Amino acid sequence: MKEILYDILYITLGSAGGALLSCLMLTVLKQLIPRLDDLFKKIDQKTPKTKVFRGSLFIGIIFTATIVKDFFALGYIGFGLIIGFFVYLKDDIFDSTNGPATKSKIKRA
Question: Among 33, 54, 82, 107, which is 20 to 30 Å from 9 by CA?
């Protein structure tokens, strides 16, 4: 039981790290390539806005991350990094409210 909790902790830490790295990478890429944000908006406009689609996309992310983990024989932290990267990418593309905090999204008090 103790090993399972450690494994879950490693995956959680890896996911947080993967999301942080993805945030930094995508912020820099969007500054270097301004058309990248337009591409994300086009993808978001062409996909359905249903919860079923978003849920199935999350299941696809887990499935893809598992395949990559097994192919490269990664540990749990690497698995978490992959999940964090894909989940953040999904949030940045499809959920405009969950993307990186840009100046236009930050509300000044």
Answer: 54
> Smallest Cα–Cα separation from 76: which of 1, 7, 5?
7
Q: Round to whole Å and give the CA distance between 102 and 27.
A: 9
Sole residue written with tokens 């097994």? 70
Give the position of tokens 């849920």. 55
Q: Which residue has the tokens 């909790």?
A: 5
Question: Which residue reads 């945030």 in tokens?
Answer: 23
pLDDT class for 63, splitting at 50, 70, 90?
Answer: very high
Question: Which burial class, exposed, middle or buried, applies to 88 when counting CB atoms under 10 A from its CB (0-12, 13-18, 19+)?
Answer: buried
